[in-house]
Amino acid sequence: MPTTFGFFSDASLKTPVRSALFFTQDRTSPVAQDRVVYFGSPLAGRSCQKDGGVYVSATGSAAGDVKLALSAAGLDGAAGGTPLRLGAGVLGGVANARAIYIRVLDSTHAPGVNAGLALALNDPTEYDNG
Amino acid sequence: MSAFDSSFDASFDTDADVAIEVGVVTVVCPLAVSVVDLQVFESKFLRWSPVVNIGGTDVSGRLTGRISISAVEDSARIASLALIPPNAAALAAYDNAPVTIDVLLYRSGTAAAFRLFTGLVEGSEFAPDSRVASLECRDGHQERPKACTTAAEVEALFGGLAVPSPLLLEWNATEPDPVSYFKGLLDTLPGAVAIDASGLWRVIPWTIPATPAASFGQDDIYDGSLTVIHANRADLPKQITATLAHRIHRLHCWQIDVSWSRVDRSRYVVDGLPTLPKATALEALNGLAPWHIKGSPVMVQPIPGSYPIIVGPQTLYYLVDYPEAQLTVDAFSAQLYRRWYQEVEIRYSIAFEMGGLSDRVDAVSATLTSDFDAGAWESPLSSASSSGIYSANEPIPVVTPTGYEALPAPYPPANASVDHLGSHTSAQRLEALRHVVAKGLRQATAGKRKQRLRFGRPIDPRFELGAVLGVDAYGVSGIGQVDELGHDLDLDSGDASSEFTLAVPQGNSTMTGATVALTAPTPTVAHPSAPIVLGNKIGAAFETPAFPDADAQVGFLCNVLPTSNNYDPSKPVFNTKFRIIMPELTATHRDPLTIETTVTGSYTIAGAGLTIDF
């Protein structure tokens, strides 16, 4: 039985994020870009749990340039590189999807593409609650 | 659940005993950050290379021919490319595989990477002789609304800019049709929706600020590529009107006092005139439907006794015995009323001046119909309205008497009317009006935005749909919003170009929007309330007109006896009866009525147009 929790482009959890979310910034006058993705499972009978809570965090090179928050307003107060707690667990179903707001501002200002970044979870377990 | 910490709440206790571990969730969301040096666009000698990823595999080295990407407002972004697959399995794996197309731009000392497309392979054609597979890719624009299961999910696709109105655009929860609902809301959007190059859904407001993000002169665009496109005649009528027709019921109440009193008592003796039986009076009053008696009529009975009547030198006595007194009336008064509904259509309209040279006026309209059961309101209640569950002592609710107890509420004021707007709240009605006005505004703005500027230049992926750009070249200048774009990368020739189409409408602001207020007109109805004073019409008498006006013969119609000295056998003789003629309704208050009302509000359309200098 495959796991069903994942990252989606839409709040209705219909379009999985299959390719890298692309952030573009100007080298000389960089401006942070915000995007939002959704974490959840379209199946209502599932849950995603981890002792201590489910966290998502940026991994890879320059992960500290990535801020995460559960709301657009929360990005302003978020600290770069800090894992975002999605909750003690995340229930399946569209209504329980978590919006994850992402703000990226590359600190190196070095022209090029950094494709080594990703959002990853702290290895939670998915359960089928029947 | 005991394995987990105390922060789990009850919602996770669905059925812990039967929870099955599915597995560890290891999904990741890849991110890519491109730091670009915008100086690359300052060079005419730009070098480029495409990076195409299909199904997680970089196929850039297998590309051939050209890569084309096009995007239009409210449509799917489409990409086409050609490549030589390594084997049949790879070719088969392209079907429905995720695709990203990036472009790397270089000039001496600097570089920039941009994403041009994110989507899925929609279809492919393979040419065995050349081993070239041509792929058509789409971004899934249509699938987004189709995947929605609730009205809220569809509405979320418009970022709060669309104007829903459940009264005019209903979400069918039983048989959801998200695509139709999406189209209905899109018709109210003062903007556009599209999926951007990164695959993210975007809502693009139609705003055109005075300062563009970039401006292009003659040196920046390809020679001969600048085209001015004027709106077609069909897109630019003289005027577009948006109208909400609200069909309601105007409830009228007309109330008239009616009274009658007997002749002088002497005529009972001298002319043998009959007295008026109470039953006859009541029958007349009750037979006037649709006029009804309000409350109870006041019947004045004669007082039993002996009344002296002086006839010449004689004094006679007119006797009223007790039984007769009970059955006849000397006078009566009653309040008669009738009530009825009139179908009224209140048309709230706003006109969008389009500036077209034709006389054509286009219309956007919707109708809101009151759900009030006016037919039941107008009809008297059945006397069998009892629930039938009581055999005795049926509880009767204590109510303040209105006089209209036989009729259901509401009770319009006497000789006036009230407009019953149905069960819809004023907020719902305003919502409906805003919905219609938004449709009109979108149609008007879309028509004006058909005035466009199109130009090509070396590949420039900085600007997305909705970007505001300026052009000042070849005597043409204007600022507009990108509503269509295309990128073309030719691997054979090395050419890479972009084409932008700017909407440059002649508007009146930098924003597109409308504000409206809804105020229902107050009915000013006044039915004539002059009382009807009835008399007695006496036939077969000298005083009887030879040619009485039939319509004026109302009241108690009776005749003198042939034995009376007042008897004239040549005069008309009445059928003894009590006759009441109530006034008729005028067409103004009876026939369906249309009231035209101009909406209080304003609208703005973003854009300053363009100028052409010869």
Set down the secondary structure blueprint.
The complex is a heterodimer of chains A (130) and B (614).
Chain A: E1 6-8, E2 21-26, E3 33-40, E4 46-59, E5 66-69, E6 84-91, E7 98-104, E8 112-121, E9 125-128
Antiparallel strand pairs in A: 1-3, 3-7, 4-6, 4-8, 4-9, 5-7
Chain B: E1 20-24, E2 28-36, E3 47-54, E4 57-58, E5 63-72, E6 78-83, H1 88-93, E7 98-107, E8 110-127, E9 132-138, H2 143-146, H3 151-156, H4 178-186, E10 191-195, E11 201-205, E12 214-217, E13 227-229, E14 239-261, H5 266-270, E15 276-277, H6 278-286, E16 292-293, E17 298-300, E18 305-311, E19 314-320, H7 322-327, E20 328-329, E21 331-353, E22 361-369, H8 374-378, E23 416-420, H9 426-448, E24 452-458, E25 468-473, E26 476-490, E27 496-503, E28 513-517, E29 532-539, E30 555-559, E31 577-579, E32 593-598, E33 600-604, E34 610-612
Parallel strand pairs in B: 12-25, 14-22, 14-29, 21-32, 29-30
Antiparallel strand pairs in B: 3-4, 3-7, 5-6, 5-26, 6-9, 7-8, 8-9, 10-11, 13-24, 14-21, 14-23, 15-20, 16-21, 17-21, 18-19, 24-27, 25-26, 26-27, 26-34, 28-33, 30-31
Keyphrases for this structure?
heterodimer; A: 130 residues; mainly beta; four-stranded antiparallel beta sheet; elongated; B: 614 residues; 9 helices; 12% helix
What does this structure look like?
- The complex is a heterodimer of chains A (130) and B (614).
- Chain A contains no helices and nine strands.
- Chain A is an all-beta fold.
- Chain A has one domain (6-124).
- In chain A, the strands form two sheets. Chain A has a four-stranded antiparallel beta sheet with strand order 1-3-7-5, with no helix packed on it. In chain A, strands 4, 6, 8 and 9 form a four-stranded antiparallel beta sheet that branches.
- Chain A is elongated.
- Chain B has nine helices and 34 strands.
- With 614 residues, chain B is mainly β.
- The chains are: A mainly beta (130), B mainly beta (614).
- At the A-B interface, β2, β4, β6, β8 and β9 of A face β1, β2, β7 and β8 of B.
- β8 (112-121) of chain A pairs antiparallel with β2 of chain B.
